[in-house]
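Hi all, posting the design record for the shared folder.

TITLE: backbone redesign
STEP: 1 of 1
STRUCTURE INPUT:
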């Protein structure tokens, strides 16, 4: 039996209080005494990143993503470029770079498109906007051709936009499409957005209480991942239409997924829940936690100030940030399994945490003192970006599994598209944080400190 929304709102608001006895009140860094000898490895982590240095890393990621996703439509038989879009072409295919496995349409690339838009705003560099505009224009041109092809064939690259069958098909892409439309980037793809809305609201399987859930590979299961695969799109739909029901559904998903998966004592999310299993499955996959943290951040960006769900969602975000902050490794990255330091260090989740912390600081949702963790995390993530822009250390696509070894043995790959959008988001948000006039960042006593200007004015030697 699930609790009503009003009760969930109250419970979520109390979640941070429930964990207060299990951790110090403030996990942000404290001022220390005189500096001792600084290890070169720590000096690299504690180096104050500059806007120019952050932008240089983002430039490399942009170049790699651009190379990996050619924006051309080809004839499958002749391999010639299709430029006449006046009629559908049954042989149409998107050009692929044989050195990459990136797809123009996927949930990973939906995150990347949204990240490109954020990067353009943060840096003023129009190349990020152009990346999105060119590919969304191509998608618009290609839609008639791919509508004419079977949508039950996974070779159809627009199958997920035309006939979605899972949240992965439509959620992140829909959120990016709405953001682009509202920003005036690319063509008007309202029919695709409408398809996404119908699927999110009426097509995807839900439990009896309305929680979005999956029937595969385990029936009646709730995944932490799906907080991101649904909530940003619902929130953006509310922003686009002004209809409050989308906000209500987005809040309900956050609270009801959290009721099943969030552990207040630890401040982190389990990966999944199964209705037929009465026992909690204590697997705390890092990227699943990243999906939740980003989803709540995106919801709070657009949720009306007077919405009754705003306070409990913000309380949950703060509680998770505190829990995740505890688990940052000495390398600056976070582990594949957050609470298991013998699991490997993973890049995409680390970038998600950096983004979310820096974003929450910039928005005034958490103390600026967490900025030191975000900066160390960014320096570590930036160290995973190769000279050509490839992002190393990203776990490949991962199901909700019931055995811990599955997560230990998931490989990492530069071809895992999950790492590119979060890295751009982290860089863009760190730039905003550093340029926020109310925040001051700098090195003191051998380490970095980020604080409000008022706090900085009160520092005494």
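Okay, here is what came back for every position:
SEQUENCE:
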């Amino acid at each position: 039996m699930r609790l009503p929304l009003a009760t969930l709102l109250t419970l979520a608001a109390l979640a941070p209080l429930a964990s207060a006895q299990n951790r110090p009140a403030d996990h942000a860094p404290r001022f220390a005494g005189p500096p001792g000898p600084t290890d070169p490895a720590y000096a690299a982590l504690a180096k104050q990143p500059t806007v120019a240095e952050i932008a240089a890393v983002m430039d490399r990621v942009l170049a790699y993503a651009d190379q990996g996703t050619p924006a051309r439509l080809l004839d499958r038989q002749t391999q010639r470029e299709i430029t006449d879009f006046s009629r559908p072409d049954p042989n149409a295919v998107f050009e692929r770079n044989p050195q990459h496995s990136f797809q123009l349409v996927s949930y990973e690339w939906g995150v990347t498109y949204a990240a490109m838009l954020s990067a353009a705003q943060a840096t003023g560099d129009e190349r990020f906007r152009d990346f999105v505009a060119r590919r969304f224009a191509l998608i618009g041109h290609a839609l008639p051709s791919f509508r004419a092809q079977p949508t039950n064939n996974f070779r159809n690259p627009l199958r997920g936009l035309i006939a979605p069958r899972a949240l992965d098909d439509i959620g992140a892409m829909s959120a990016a499409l709405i953001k682009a439309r509202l920003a005036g980037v690319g063509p008007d793809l309202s029919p695709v957005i409408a398809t996404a809305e119908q699927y999110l609201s009426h097509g995807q399987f839900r439990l009896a209480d309305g929680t979005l859930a999956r029937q595969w590979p385990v029936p009646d299961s709730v995944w932490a991942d799906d907080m991101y695969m649904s909530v940003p799109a619902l929130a953006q739909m509310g922003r686009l239409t002004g209809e409050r029901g989308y906000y209500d559904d987005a809040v309900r998903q956050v609270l009801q997924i959290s009721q099943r998966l969030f552990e207040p004592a630890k401040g982190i999310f389990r990966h999944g829940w199964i209705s037929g299993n009465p026992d909690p499955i204590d697997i705390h996959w890092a990227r699943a936690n990243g999906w939740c943290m980003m989803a709540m951040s995106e919801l709070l960006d657009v949720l009306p100030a007077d919405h009754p769900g705003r306070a409990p969602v913000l309380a949950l975000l703060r509680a998770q940030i505190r829990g995740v902050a505890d688990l940052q490794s000495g390398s600056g990255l976070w582990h594949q399994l957050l609470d298991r330091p013998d699991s490997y260090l993973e890049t995409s989740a680390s970038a998600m945490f950096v983004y979310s912390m820096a974003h929450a600081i910039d928005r005034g949702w958490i103390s600026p003192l967490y900025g030191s963790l975000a900066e160390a995390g960014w320096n570590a993530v930036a160290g995973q970006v190769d000279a050509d822009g490839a992002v190393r250390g990203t776990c490949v696509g991962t199901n909700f599994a019931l055995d811990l070894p599955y997560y230990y043995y998931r490989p990492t790959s530069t071809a895992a598209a999950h790492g590119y959008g979060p890295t751009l988001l982290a860089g863009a948000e760190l730039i905003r944080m550093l340029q926020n006039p109310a925040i001051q960042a700098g090195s003191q006593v051998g380490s970095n400190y980020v604080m409000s200007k008022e706090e900085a004015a009160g520092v005494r030697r």
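COMMENT: Confidence is low (pLDDT under 50) at residues 9-33.
Let me know if anyone wants the other runs.
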